[in-house]
Structures are given as C-alpha cells and as structure tokens.
C-alpha cells in the first residue's frame, strides 16, 4: 500500500509490484470520504476514513496482507491515522 499526501488530500493505493497494476485505491476525493474533512475533525479524521475505506475495498477483493510504503513521509499525523485505521479494519501489514 502506497500513501501520498498533499496539503489538502491523502491518497492510498494497493499496487501489485510484479505486474505494476493498481489493485485498490482510495482518497479523500472518494465519494465515500469526500466532504468529511471539513465536517468532522479535519484532515486526520478524513485520513482515518480513507484507511477504513481502503481496508474495506481490499477485503472485498480478497487482499488481506500488504506492505506499507509511506513514501518518505513521517509516520505521524495523517499517515499514522490512515495506517492505524487500515489495521483496525483488518488489513495486515
């Protein structure tokens, strides 16, 4: 699972390294998450929702185990919130 964060949004995608295909993706721009950053707790809460969403998508596609790639970002704030929410939702890494 690769994570990218910008000033406003956070993105997560699960990539199959051998074939180079994206298997699942979610971001704060996803319809399920969109608008939550202003309503309920800011960007960290939105990152938690992205973590829960990516875990749910992976479960639906029978993906249970991933490798977490934080792309050089510190494991803090939004990146940590996304990772912890994905773990709590059942994704193993």
TrEMBL record:
Keyword presence, rRNA-binding: yes
Share an example GO biological-process annotation for this protein.
translation
Keyword tags = Ribonucleoprotein, Ribosomal protein, RNA-binding, rRNA-binding
The Swiss-Prot or TrEMBL record describes its family as follows: Belongs to the universal ribosomal protein uL18 family.
At the highest ranks, the source species' classification is: Bacteria, Pseudomonadati, Myxococcota, Polyangia, Polyangiales
Instruction: Give an example GO molecular function.
Output: 5S rRNA binding
Q: Does the keyword Flavoprotein apply?
A: no
Q: Which Pfam families does the record associate with it?
A: Ribosomal_L18p
Record's protein name? Large ribosomal subunit protein uL18
UniProt xrefs under InterPro entries: Ribosomal_L18, Ribosomal_uL18_bac-type, Ribosomal_uL18_bac/plant/anim
Entry's Gene Ontology cellular component terms: cytosolic large ribosomal subunit
């Amino acid at each position: 699972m690769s994570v990218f964060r910008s000033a406003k949004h956070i993105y997560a995608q699960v990539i199959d390294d051998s074939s180079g295909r994206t298997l699942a993706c979610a971001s704060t721009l996803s319809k399920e998450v969109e608008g939550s950053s202003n309503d309920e707790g800011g960007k960290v809460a939105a990152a938690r929702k992205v973590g829960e969403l990516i875990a749910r998508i992976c479960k639906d596609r029978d993906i249970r185990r991933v490798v977490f790639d934080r792309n050089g970002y510190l494991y803090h704030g939004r990146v940590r919130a996304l990772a912890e929410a994905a773990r709590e939702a059942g994704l193993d890494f």
